[in-house]
Specification:
The protein is mostly beta strands. About 5% of the residues lie in helices and about 50% in strands. The protein has one helix and 44 strands. A hairpin with a 2-residue loop joins β26 and β27. The longest helix has 20 residues. The radius of gyration is 35 Å and the shape is elongated.
């Protein structure tokens, strides 16, 4: 009888373990044998075709993507650039069952690139066969803007750069056409809706295809554009006499109207728009500025500046050289001089009334504005905008403009300065000192400007007077959207002033001897 020898460093394996291993091996072999005649389900599927006709439509709340259904695709994956939360290389959305997706995670003014791929049927773990991606499409999301009842830039597509929906509640439904698309807006039970038909020409098929989209106009930012002249300031103490310029107090409770022929200032209450009193000033008053509770009025022929406080002349400052228009900051008053070929801006110390060394600028300075932080002064001259660094009181830059500039206004935030010059309004970036946008209108003579900063990041709203004989209008321009509009007014509109929210705009009609206002 032989005895078992136990070898060192080796472990004996239980008989039960060996049986389990043999059983598992047999089961695997049986499984493979039974399925030998079957093909893996995934190997039997056809790869989905790339989605076609991908297009994008801007909705009030986001960007809607649509595409033609992909053959052999059960679901779709959407990719986006820039991705969400730095998820580079991964699908933006998966499991989309219909050829449409609306991206609501978008930022106003941001450009996005999209592409889509189809996914075939999956196995038990939910995966599927990915097809090739569609073509890529780029679109910039921009919120709709209501401008006198007109919706601007509602659609932006790759094949149709811009489609507009026009709707004026006072007129009814308005249709507009642009680049093979037409749109309709309408009101039903107090809710505004839009519908749009897109006409796509398919040269390979030799046909025109119409696609319909629709939606509700929900939370739309409103640009407060007045629709018509709302009223007239009541002179009360006699007629105006060539009202030339107008300014509002800081709290907007009072308005001040400079009457050039009559040599007086009319002070009115904005609560009822009635003149409460008049104050006599020097000869041929032109520009005015309200600063720290005082009104400063430039008297051109008298070579003086009248200082009015609480309805009375507090003092008269001597400023020779035909003073015309003014700006103020801190304890300094800046006055453009228009005598002959004077190329200077006078500086007056408000505290003691003394003049300081003038600032040298270009020929025939007119409109003038100071940055909100007091760092720079902007002066319109013949052919150039002078940028003056107030720390050194020297001209640090010259920006080319037209030959007959008048009004200059700066945005409340100080980002842009606007110059009215004949048939053109120019917007200059105060940081880059470069022209960014402009509004050009034939047969206009832009005179003076008022700029309002809109809430919710909607940019500036610019009001401008047009005193052209064939014009006589108040223009409104929204540079961010490029939209503009105008309202007919009386003869020779000139001075203009707007409330901070832009909902009321006062303007002088020089040849009508009246002051009126627009209101939204």
């Amino acid at each position: 009888m032989k005895k078992a020898t136990i070898l060192p460093n080796r472990k004996s394996r239980p008989t039960g373990h060996l049986l389990i291993c043999l059983s598992a091996h047999l089961l695997i072999c049986l499984h493979l044998a039974c399925n030998n005649s079957r093909v893996n389900p995934l190997e039997d599927e056809t790869e989905p075709q790339p989605p076609t006709e991908l297009s994008a439509t801007i909705l009030p709340n986001g960007i809607q993507l649509t595409w033609e259904k992909s053959t052999h695709a059960n679901t779709y994956k959407v990719f986006r650039n820039p991705p969400a939360e730095n998820d580079v290389g991964k699908p933006y959305r998966v499991g989309i069952e219909v050829p449409q997706f609306t991206d609501t995670n978008v930022v106003n003014g941001t450009s996005y690139e999209y592409w889509v791929l189809g996914v075939g049927p999956g196995d038990e773990d939910g995966s599927g066969i990915n097809g090739n991606p569609s073509q890529r499409i780029s679109v910039t999301f921009s919120k709709q803007l209501l401008l006198r009842g007109r919706f601007i830039n509602v659609f932006t597509r790759a094949s149709i750069p811009e489609v507009q929906i026009a709707f004026d509640p006072d007129v009814g439904t308005v249709n507009t056409a642009n680049n093979g698309a037409f749109s309709v807006a309408y009101e039903q039970e107090g809710v505004y809706h839009w519908t749009a038909s897109h006409l796509d020409f398919l040269p390979n098929q030799g046909e025109v295809r119409t696609r319909e989209t629709a939606g509700e106009l929900g939370d739309i930012p409103l640009i407060p554009i007045p629709k018509e002249v709302a009223g007239e300031v009541d002179a009360r103490f006699g007629e105006f006499d060539k009202p030339w310029s107008i300014v509002l107090s800081d709290d907007e409770r009072q308005g001040f109207i400079v009457n050039q022929n009559g040599n007086f200032v009319s002070i009115f209450d904005t609560s009822d728009n009635r003149v409460r009193q008049t104050v006599d000033v020097g000869e041929i008053p032109t520009g005015a500025v309200y600063f720290e509770g005082k009104l400063f009025v430039a008297n051109s022929r008298s070579d003086t500046v009248s200082v009015i406080e609480q309805g009375k002349i507090k003092e008269t400052l001597n400023v020779s050289g035909f003073p015309a228009y003014l700006a103020a900051h801190s304890d300094r008053l800046y006055v453009t001089l228009q005598a002959g070929r004077v190329e200077k801006v006078a500086i007056v110390n408000i505290n003691n009334g003394q003049q300081e060394a003038p600032i040298l600028v270009g020929v025939s300075p007119s409109g003038i504005a100071v940055a909100p932080d007091g760092g720079f002064l902007y002066v319109a001259n013949r052919g150039r905008l002078s940028v003056v660094e107030l720390g050194t009181k020297t001209e640090s830059a010259q920006i080319p403009i037209g030959q007959v500039p008048q009004g200059v206004a700066i945005s409340p935030g100080g980002m842009y300065v606007y110059i009215a010059d004949s048939a053109r309004i120019t917007r200059v970036n105060t940081v880059t000192r470069a022209e960014e946008d402009s509004l050009e209108q034939p047969n206009t003579l832009f005179g003076w400007l008022a700029v309002v900063e809109l809430p919710d990041g909607l940019g500036d709203l610019v009001y401008a007077t047009d005193e052209h004989l064939s014009g006589n209008r108040i223009w409104m321009w929204h540079p961010q959207s490029g939209a503009s509009d105008s309202i007919p007014v009386g003869r020779r509109p000139f001075g203009i002033a707007a409330t901070k929210d832009g909902r009321r705009v006062y303007f002088c009609e020089v040849d009508e001897n009246r002051v009126r206002w627009l209101e939204n």
